[in-house]
Design goal:
heterodimer; A: mainly alpha; MetI-like fold; 2 strands; B: 0% strand
Chain lengths: 289, 276
């Protein structure tokens, strides 16, 4: 169909994007890999070959396991809250009501809030144990205010991040729900299917594809949560709210340990790849091109 | 088509949905309200929703900080600059993939998507060191380049899904009439592609505006955008809730408004065209 001429032109048009992305990925990645085998501290210009010492250091550090666990808790916790909450809210928004457009706007708004803003607003104006709104509400019902970020740092971060991502899950699941053929539901209704069985046998299967996409995209972002931790707890107390990205950041840019940080970076890449292989299979099936 | 529902049920739905909507929106509303309070009222142990002395002093104070306009301009330059540069690279690529697809097209698109899965910390150190050596640390140019690459896969994907919907027959017809590649682009494709390009631009400006990894680790003062400015309130001195709220309101208002206009495209863009 297309001519040789247009094929050549097509290649020329695609190449810049492909080459630039390839360079952006591969050059730094190879450098990280190289640094990870070097003793290299920014404060000390002398470098030397380290073998696997950096990996040994990073992987046997108790902080690593804590950070790995925290990373998984953040990803899984936020996914559970947003996917389940998003499905329920989408069901609600799909019902006939007055002012649906405005309600949608209210629901989607948190997604547009800059991460540093939402983290600091939650930290100070809601979770602060003295002047926060939660403390005010606790006192109103007669319980002792909770020091959210001090005593439950990880749960607090999961909460803040869930607030940011709930709108995204809701909006996408709602869009998918609206494409459901209402006659199918009506037919099931006439056959006497209960609301619950209609939900599990018609709506949930219909949402599978959109749900997969939500999980894929959120996982990409959730594995790399950074700003929310930086401005709320700075990873603390101890390592209680440090995830892998934040640990690598501390190792490299705060402790100037390029070698150790790079080993951590490579570990993060390997972890992301394990997750990615699994997710890409799911998505490959669900995306038609 | 539409199912019959009683007025009662509709009213109940409305009440419940508005209730949840306001609950989710509340932190933003609270931030906006607090920005009009005095610092003393902002930390009051008896907080008030509307009954306080409304004041603009926080906005004046934040704006009078000598460097505030600079942060704001940096955000604008970095967000718009990176998206424009991204479009210049992505439009030809997406055009070719949509209209001259080859066996490799699917593979290339999936590969581009997979680059988004590379964790930023995997490339943080080399980028940081290269930027230090090239004098790009804390520079707008450096951040524009980084954010261009970060958003490029999404830009290509979004454009691809829009371009794919432009009927190929129109281009075939133009070609039959002897239109050159260039005039095909200018007279046939462009008018049909503009809405898709505009949506792509809008969503990616929002994403770049809110990007909070690279903007935080690669900037200190000169090129620091609003994400960094807000982060400076994480270790403040003295009372700051009302000022934080005023600064936050100004930082989120532009994208909140843009975002509300682009919510339909948001679904499509962020799901790589898989959900429309």
């Amino acid at each position: 169909m297309s001519t040789t001429h247009s094929r050549t032109a097509g290649k020329a048009m695609i190449s810049p994007a492909v080459i630039l992305l390839f360079l952006w990925m591969i050059v730094p990645l190879v450098m990280t890999l190289y640094f990870s085998f070097q003793f290299y501290n920014l404060l000390d210009p002398v470098t030397s070959f380290a073998g696997f010492a950096n990996y040994e250091y990073f992987l046997t550090d108790p902080a690593f396991f804590e950070a790995l666990g925290n990373t998984l808790i953040i990803v899984i916790g936020v996914l559970c809250i947003t996917v389940i909450g998003g499905t329920l809210l989408a069901l609600l928004l799909d019902q006939p009501m007055f002012g649906q457009g405005i309600v949608r706007l209210l629901f989607i708004a948190p997604f547009f809030v800059m991460p540093t803003v939402s983290a600091l607003v939650w930290k100070n104006m809601f979770m602060n144990p003295t002047n926060g709104l939660f403390a005010f509400l606790s006192k109103l019902v007669g319980t002792t205010p909770i020091d959210w970020l001090g005593h439950h740092p990880l749960a607090s971060i999961v909460m803040i991040v869930s607030w940011q991502w709930l709108p995204f899950a809701t909006l996408i699941l709602l869009t998918a729900m609206q494409s459901l053929d209402s006659e199918q539901i009506e037919a099931a209704e006439m056959d006497g299917a209960s609301a619950l069985s209609r939900f599990f046998h018609i709506i949930v299967p219909h949402l599978a594809r959109a749900g997969t996409v939500v999980i894929l995209i959120q996982t990409i972002f959730l594995l790399s949560i950074f700003a929310e931790i930086l401005v709320t707890t700075a990873g603390g107390p101890g390592y209680a709210s440090t995830n892998i990205p934040y640990l690598v950041y501390m190792q490299s840019l705060l402790q100037f340990d390029v070698g150790g940080g790079s080993a951590g970076g490579i570990v993060a890449v390997i972890l992301a790849n394990i997750v990615a292989i699994f997710l890409m299979r799911l998505v490959g099936k669900n995306l038609d091109l | 088509m539409a199912r019959q529902v009683t007025l009662n049920r509709r009213l109940v739905n409305t009440a419940v949905a508005w209730g949840f909507g306001l609950l989710i929106f509340f932190p933003i509303l609270w931030t906006i309200l607090t920005s009009f309070k005095t610092e003393a009222e902002a930390i009051s142990l008896q907080p008030s929703l509307f009954a306080f002395d409304w004041t603009l002093e926080n906005y004046q104070e934040v704006n009078s900080r000598s460097n505030y306009p600079r942060y704001f301009m940096n955000s604008v330059i970095i967000a718009v600059g990176s998206v424009v540069l991204g479009l210049i690279i992505a439009v030809p690529a997406a055009w070719a993939m949509a209209f001259v697809p080859s066996k490799k097209t699917r593979g290339i698109l999936m590969w581009m998507l997979s680059t988004k899965m590379l964790p930023p910390v995997g490339v943080l150190i080399p980028i940081y060191l290269l930027f230090r050596d090239w004098g790009l640390l804390d520079s707008r140019v450096g951040l524009v380049l980084v954010l261009t690459m970060v958003n490029l896969p999404i830009i290509v994907w979004m454009l691809f899904t829009y371009f794919r919907e432009i009927p190929g027959e129109i281009l075939e017809a133009a070609r039959m009439d002897g239109a050159s590649l260039k005039s095909e682009l200018i007279h046939v494709l462009t008018p049909m592609a503009v809405p898709g390009i505009a949506s792509t631009m809008l969503l990616n400006v929002i994403l770049a505006w809110n990007e909070a990894f690279w903007t935080l680790v690669l900037t200190t003062t000169n090129a620091a955008p609003l994400t960094q400015f807000i982060a400076s309130y994480s270790s403040p001195e003295g009372l700051f809730y009302a000022k934080l709220s005023a600064a936050s309101t100004m930082a989120i208002a532009p994208v909140l408004i843009l975002g509300w206009f682009s919510q339909k495209q948001l679904v499509r863009g962020l799901t790589f065209g898989a959900v429309k």
